[in-house]
Amino acid sequence: MKPPIFPPLTAPLPALDWHARARMYRDQALGMPDIVNGQPNWPRYFLLAHAVELAIRSVLVHAKTAGERAAGQEPGNHDLTALYAYACNLGLKSNLKVLDELQYLSEIHKNHVARYPKSLGQVWVASEFDDAVDALLSDTWQHIRVV
Fold first, then answer.
1. Cα 134–47–126 angle (5° rounding)?
2. CATH class for domain 14-144?
3. ∠ at Cα 27 (24, 32), nearest 5°?
4. Long-range pairs for 22-29 at CB < 8 Å and ≥24 separation?
5. What are the tens digits of pLDDT across the range 69-126?
6. Spatial separation of the C-alpha atoms in residues 122 and 125, rounded to whole Å
7. CA 22, 24, 28: angle at the middle one, nearest 5?
């Protein structure tokens, strides 16, 4: 049997692995155009939304590693707004910029519009979310980093 190309995640602080992966997705979205052939650049939306999901999940992994629990059940995948609220219940500092814009990106992510052709009323230009995504990555990093 061949060894895996990539070793399994065995870091003593797995939340850092989740956050590093979030940054990879965010970095790939940088510089991509918002519109391609007259259509929204759906891969850019996917990269941004997935970066957000992984960054939020880094907070959840951090809490789980520390033995913390939030009230209620963890929200399902792809509902970025609910995941963010859950992470805030675990101590992540709420950010008004993120709250204002996350609902729109969450809707696109939750309905898989960026992955599969579907009709969705109004779609915001992906670069409108850049500042909120960067703020979220900064906030989650501040929350999980080892001091």
1. 70
2. mainly alpha
3. 135
4. 22/50, 22/51, 22/52, 22/53, 22/54, 22/55, 22/58, 22/137, 22/140, 23/51, 23/137, 25/50, 25/51, 25/54, 26/51, 26/133, 26/134, 26/137, 29/126
5. 877 888 987 899 999 999 999 999 999 999 999 998 888 888 777 677 777 666 778 8
6. 10
7. 120
Residue of 136, 116, 105 whose CA lies nearest to 22 = 136
Show Cβ contacts of residue 112 under 8 Å, excluding neighbours closer than 6 positions.
78, 118
CA–CA dist 54, 78 (Å, integer): 10
Q: What residues does each domain of the chain span?
A: 14-144
Residue 118 has which token pair? 């579907």
DSSP string for residues in 88-108: HHTTPPP-HHHHHHHHHHHHH
Pairing type for strands 35-36 and 39-40 reads antiparallel
Angle formed at CA 76 by CA 49 and CA 118, multiple of 5 degrees? 50
